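User: Run a structure prediction on this.
Assistant: Running it now.
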Amino acid sequence: MKQTKLTLLSVAVISLALTAACTQTRNTNTATANQNMATPEPTPNKDAIVSEVTRIEKDWPRIWKEKDGAAVRRIEADDVILVSFTGTLGSKEQDVKDAEAGNLTFDSWDVSEVNVKVIDTDAAVASVLMTLTKAKFSDGSNAEDVSGHYRVLDTFARRGGQWQVVASSIVKLTREAEQALINNTMPGPAVSGTPATQPSPPARPSATRKAPPPPSPPNQ
């Protein structure tokens, strides 16, 4: 009898142990499965990102006009990569100095064709057309005419809630490219409307009715 009780007790203990082991295994598998599930990326607010990047791009004329070096410090990242239209590398520190010194002067600076591509919630790329008229850049001793049309490609990253330029390259349009741009933006000559055909006079019994003259071709 005692042996039977001991046997039953052993079976109960083993059953409890197996149940606990199975429960622990299931919990471990569930935790592993939860860890393996990919966290969905937040959906970027594209309209807000495009609006903010566009605002920054359109603010550059004011920044240089007002010698706003603080804005340059805020917009350009400390590790920004800058490639000028001459192929030389620039730096944030030099841009700040040039802005505060007023080394770039111009009569007008137009920012157009702003095209922003949102990559994710914290990254975007913008292409811009800049048109500078009567613009000069001075390094303190020499002044260079930098008027013309420029294509700019800026890479933005959001850091600490602030959108910053982390890379920028600029290309000056050749004369052929500028002429093609001007031709594409100039309105074409106005085309004269086709004159209305005058109604024919009532036919006379004794006269042959003539067909109305064809409408004049539009002016070229």
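Residues 2-36 form the longest helix (35 residues).
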